[in-house]
Amino acid sequence: MTAQNSYSDIDYELLMKIQQGAMSYQYRGVPLQKNPFDLALYLWLLEQTRPQTLIEIGAYQGGSAIWFSDQARLLELDLKVFSIDLNVPATVTGPSVNFLQGDARELGTVLPSSFMNAVKRPLMVVEDSSHMSGTTAAVLEFFDPWLRSGEYIVIEDGILSDMRVEELYDGGPLRAIEQFLEKRGDRYEIVRSLCDYFGRNVTWNVNGYLRRL
Ligand SMILES: C[S@@+](CC[C@H](N)C(=O)[O-])C[C@H]1O[C@@H](n2cnc3c(N)ncnc32)[C@H](O)[C@@H]1O
Question: What is the residue-averaged pLDDT of the chain?
Fold first, then answer.
């Protein structure tokens, strides 16, 4: 892939250096696999949309769930975080953070209708699990009927395409987003003001900040 047909303004060499830092970053002693751009964008998004429920798919060791919860508290939000993973982190706890064992491809099992009907609104969803296009597609399909106007679903790591590894992920998140929007494009907006805030797709969530219309 050349600089001309990449999705992001970040060139490949710099992208891989930032990725190295992001993969070793820690928050409160727990790995938090995010880069500075998206930490800033998420903070802005929390402040603007003031969610009361955040459902994250892909907890890893829990760093991002704790970070979301802590930031929400500083912003005086009444936010509950539910973070789902195939393997629930054992070592971390945090106020208002709930780790649930579940599979992104079978979310109806861990998030039954009784649960989804009861979540406090606004809802915000962050998909950060396997990044296989089929998994991302399953998450988008699951949440589509539940999301209400103005709520966000953030699809992480479309940047894998610019990292030149999308084949390993069967096209990765970007393929899933593109195919989903071909069907449901009338119901969602890719929020360019977030994706392009620091430059064109200077975010790991390339074309991934989706707002339900
Ligand atoms: C990129 S890490 C999450 C990073 C975390 N959100 C953070 O920012 O620190 C991806 C996580 O997704 C989980 N995962 C992979 N496939 C999954 C699936 N089908 N369902 C649920 N979780 C999955 C992995 O176990 C891993 O912990």
Answer: 96
